[in-house]
TrEMBL record:
It comes from the Bacteria. This is YhfH family protein. Pfam families: YhfH.
Length: 42
C-alpha cells in the first residue's frame, strides 16, 4: 500500500485554468486561478 505522504508528494502541480502556469498552492485554497489572474485589479 502506498504511503499517504508519498501519494500527495507525487501529485502533479496545480495549473491555473486561465493562463496555464503552475500555481503556488495554499493550504486552504480550492480555487483554480493563479494570484495574477485572480488579482482584483484585472
Amino acid at each position: 500500500m502506498l504511503n499517504v505522504l508519498e501519494f500527495f508528494r507525487n501529485l502533479p502541480k496545480k495549473k491555473c485554468s486561465q493562463c496555464g502556469h503552475d500555481m503556488h498552492e495554499k493550504a486552504d485554497c480550492y480555487g483554480n486561478l493563479c494570484d495574477e489572474c485572480d488579482h482584483p485589479a484585472r
